[in-house]
Amino acid sequence: MDAHLNRGPHLLADAERHYRGGPTVEARFEIPWPGFSVTVLFGPSGSGKTTALRLLAGLERADRGTIRFGGATWSDAAGGIHRPPQDRDLGFLPQAYALFPHLSVAANLGYGLASLGARERRTRVDELLTLLDLRDLELRHPGELSGGQQQRVALGRALARKPALLLLDEPLSALDRPSQLRLRKELRDLLRTLDIPTVLVTHDRAEALQLGDRLVVMDQGRVCQCGDIQQVFDRPTDPAVARILGVETVVRGQIESIVGGMATIAVGSARIFAADPGGLGWEVFVCIRGEDVAVERGCGPASESTARNRLPARITALHPEGSLIRVSLDCGFPLESLVTRQACSDLGLAEGDQICAILKAAAVHLIPHD
User: Fold this and answer.
1) 354-359 and 309-321: which strand pairing?
2) Which of 127, 184, 189, 270 is the most exposed place for a label (fewest CB within 10 A)?
3) What DSSP designation does 62 have?
4) How do residues 128-137 score in pLDDT, each as one tens digit?
5) What's the predicted TM-score (pTM) here?
6) CATH topology for 251-368?
């Protein structure tokens, strides 16, 4: 068995920062073992993600609780313990990168290595130049670099002292959209090569899914849900989390019956089928993602379809979203579908059309209504 599994949490944070006349922000989550993993702090702007990261970094002082990493206590509000950032074994990459404009790439990378001798410092800078594909740029200054190159230099500076934990605050936000898309996989591969546990802040759903292993959902300073990233995205535990995670349809419903492992749910004036939730109350929130809703002309039985739900619907609006079209539907309750532009064109969809909304029972996620 992997020895890591017996070590307990490598990072255990249960701390709060209180702002007078303002919110309380939580840093409440764990990294279960050392080695490569990316924990994503996810939520809308103002949800407290960056403050939570700064609590880990020691840039904010906790008013309550503790932060422990490995065998070290970084913060203990009751005990008056607050290790400053330089005494925590971590690397921190801020949103703005904060590169020194008057220093070369090599000098930026070596800035935090003053404690090393000249030969050791040069060896470490050379390692970083190779690792980050910056070898031909070492004499350039930040103003002569592209956004992606600046990001790699800033990351290299955070890695220079070989930290045991890496903190990244919106690491791709300063880049244009095409660069973000290109660098996501590159960043994930690099983090895997480094084999360092990483905590990363983002509000971008696609970025979280592509970069993360674990997800911590935050809203209004509170940690709402955390766990395996795909499990949290697929199974939000309350309607607020579902909306934060981009679930397009979150509506109230009532379970009318459960037969043969299939629940029948009244939603508005419609009836839909979902897998038996097991143990839920009769009042529920019905959560459906737009990509799980297909549309077609005509709503008769389809012998080749495995979808249990075929709902007559009227198109109330069409909204272009890049390569997709968001189709707003009225099928006895408001429902959103995401279809490709080509599918929209092929079907000749227009506002006011009567169509059929199709979704599998397994695509309907139910949350208890307290």
Assistant:
1) antiparallel
2) 189
3) -
4) 999 888 989 9
5) 0.88
6) OB fold (Dihydrolipoamide Acetyltransferase, E2P) (2.40.50)
